[in-house]
Amino acid sequence: MDGGGSGGGGDMATPVQKRAHEAWRVYKYYLDKTTPHSTYRWIGTLVVFLIYCLRVFSIHGFYIISYGLGIYLLNLLIGFLSPLVDPELDASDGGASLPTRGSDEFKPFIRRLPEFKFWYSMTKAFCIAFLMTFFSAFDVPVFWPILLCL
């Protein structure tokens, strides 16, 4: 009854909210259209990565941002390479083994982080890190070999 819910209260939205919602719908539309084009998506991410590297190399700074980005990308990679259900912890079938008979159930490898979400999170991280290089507040002075050793 207060109009704050997302269902049925569309008349109470301001013009700014309507524009933002329409922009979000257009963004999601084009994002959904990129789903089947994985090669072009990854090429685009590679271009964004190279632009970020050139920016960091040219200004000789923002090592903390790059270090945090590397840790985040490593976390994404681990999620991408990990199975959804750990076979050692899944005690429902009595142990992890390959099917040896025709009656055994085949369980395909299902990733914890799907490829599209992996790509999207990685690309978003590069874009955010690139934008952070334009603000001097994020350029914390650090002796970079210490980061390399950690």
UniProtKB/TrEMBL annotation:
* The entry's keywords: Membrane, Transmembrane, Transmembrane helix
GO process terms (BP): protein retention in ER lumen; retrograde vesicle-mediated transport, Golgi to endoplasmic reticulum
What highest taxon heads this organism's lineage?
A: Eukaryota
Name the InterPro entries on file: Rer1
Spell out the subcellular localization from the entry. Answer: Membrane
Membrane topology value: Multi-pass membrane protein
What does UniProt give as GO cellular component? endoplasmic reticulum; Golgi membrane
Membrane-spanning intervals of the chain = 39-57, 64-85, 118-138
User: What family is it from?
Assistant: Belongs to the RER1 family.
Q: What protein name does the entry list?
A: Protein RER1
- The organism encoding this protein is Brassica carinata (Ethiopian mustard)
